[in-house]
Amino acid sequence: MEFGFSEEQLLFRDTIYKYAKNEIVPLCAEADLKSEFSFEIWKKLGDMGLLGLPFPEEYGGQGADVVTCCLAGEALGHAGVDSGHMLALGAHTYLCTDTLFKHGNEAQRKKYVPKLASGEWIGCMGLTEPGAGSDAASLQTTAVKKGDRWILNGSKTFITNAPIANVCVVYATVDKSKKHAGITAFIVEKDFKGFSTGKPFHKMGVRASTTSEVFFEDCEVPEENVLGNIGEGFMYAHQTLEWDRSALLAPFIGGMQFMIEQCAKYASERVQFDKPIKSFQAIQHKLADMKVIMEAARLAVYRVASLKDAGYPINHLQASIAKAFVGDWGFKVASEAVQIFGGYGYIHDYPVERMLRDAKLAQIGGGTSEVQRLIISRLLTL
Ligand SMILES: Cc1cc2nc3c(=O)[nH]c(=O)nc-3n(C[C@H](O)[C@H](O)[C@H](O)COP(=O)(O)OP(=O)(O)OC[C@H]3O[C@@H](n4cnc5c(N)ncnc54)[C@H](O)[C@@H]3O)c2cc1C
Questions:
Q1: CA-CA distance, 99 to 51, in Å (whole number)?
Q2: In ligand 1, which atom is closest to the CA atom of 374?
């Protein structure tokens, strides 16, 4: 296992960290409290080039590799940017635009990628359905060819950015009998006839991201908006989910660092029994364990990123290890952070309260912790 960071990458990380701390973080607590996506934050992320990071410059991106994308996410999390906006960025950049870029033809790339990379348009990705979550291959949204269009019928749920998105990469089946081999990807614009979204869900965490159902009622999608090849959609979705298990996890790593720093400071300042609480072994051990977990989680995530950069297209084992580890142990770190803050940790004024709510998502979204274990054990027993 070999990976390191170049001077340029570290400079990039530090620049993002400083910018985010000064310009973005002051806006985050209110956005979370109001459960409101902030277009002001979105614009600032766009101004930094963070909404099109991995795409070539000719498409409006920065041509960053996966490790650099992780460093950017980690820096934002470390600065204290809320996970709601980080999720919005992740769904937009990695789940939507990257799929479009990787599998789109030149006309599709030219039409969509620059607008998405600049942040002028917002993207989302629709895979999950009310009856098909972990078992995504059982999705029921259908696509039937009629003349020069495809007619989509069905619905999706839990779709990040759906209420504010201009375009959605949608997975539908052209032949249910073929199961996963019938699943095909489509590029659906919000103004296409028969496309609509539901009311945003009120969520436990990642509150500044907007999440809703998506409906297709005889939704008309032009032939030229088929993404890639018929029947290859499930493979694309799998490749996409590897982002869920790498760059989308990086902000959680940064978030763990942020919590550790907050806790170390608080433990030095908070006095009980005439001593700062950092002098109690129970608190010292919590802090030490949080650091051990964060460092291990970081290695797991950058391992996946470096494999992706090295050109391995599918890294299911390492990706699932990273996802399960960050999900479960990241939640533990957030829970211990609240514990160190005691009653104050339960109050919104301190960011660890939000971070515990946000951390729960990493055990669910993009494949649950149980499903990651299923994948890992299947690969071990092939
Ligand atoms: C905030 C948020 C944002 C999201 N954003 C998106 C998005 O942008 N696009 C998108 O397509 N989806 C999105 N999702 C959906 C997410 O990926 C799914 O919620 C997730 O895959 C789990 O599916 P489910 O909710 O249907 O749970 P289920 O699959 O019903 O699982 C319920 C429970 O059963 C367990 N379980 C299921 N199958 C097995 C098994 N074989 N073995 C052991 N245990 C099992 C699960 O681990 C879980 O504990 C989002 C979800 C949330 C909450």
A1: 14
A2: 42
**In this structure, which residue's CA is closest to atom 23 in ligand 1?**
133
Question: Is the separation of the CB atoms in 59 and 109 below 8 Å?
Answer: yes
Tokens of 39: 């277009």
- 51 — phi, psi (to 5°)? -95, 0
Q: Is 256:74 a contact under the CB 8 Å cutoff?
A: no
* 279 φψ region: left (φ > 0), alpha (ψ -120 to 50), beta (else): alpha
pLDDT for position 247: 84
Q: Would you tell me the crossing angle of helices 25-34 and 39-47 to the nearest 10 degrees?
A: 150
Dihedral of the alpha carbons of 31, 33, 34, 38, in degrees to the nearest 10: 10
Q: Measured in angstroms, how far is the CA atom of residue 191 from the centroid of ligand 1?
A: 28
| Cβ–Cβ under 8 Å, residues 124 and 80 | no
Protein residue with least CA distance to atom 39, ligand 1:
371
Mean pLDDT for the stretch of residues 55-75 = 96
Of the listed ranges 37-41, 136-140, 311-315, the one predicted with least confidence: 311-315
Indicate the CATH number of 245-380 among 2.130.10.10, 1.10.600.10, 1.20.140.10, 3.40.640.10: 1.20.140.10
List pLDDT tens digits, range 291-303. 999 999 999 999 9
pLDDT tens digit string along 309-366?
888 866 789 999 999 999 999 999 999 999 999 999 999 999 999 999 999 999 999 9
Nearest CA to ligand 1 atom 16: 365
**Whole-number Å distance between alpha carbons of 82 and 31:** 9
Domain 123-231, CATH homologous superfamily name and number: Butyryl-CoA Dehydrogenase, subunit A, domain 2 (2.40.110.10)
Taking the centre of ligand 1 as the mean of its atom positions, its distance from the CA of residue 355, in whole angstroms, is 20
- Rounded to 5 degrees, φ, ψ at 228 are 70, -145
CB 231 within 8 A of CB 309: no
Residue range 7-118 forms a domain whose CATH class is mainly alpha
Q: How far apart are the first and last CA of the chain?
A: 23
**Quick check: 162 and 212 in contact, CB under 8 A?**
yes
Domain range summary for the chain, segments of one domain joined by +: 7-118, 123-231, 245-380
Structure tokens at 198: 């539901």
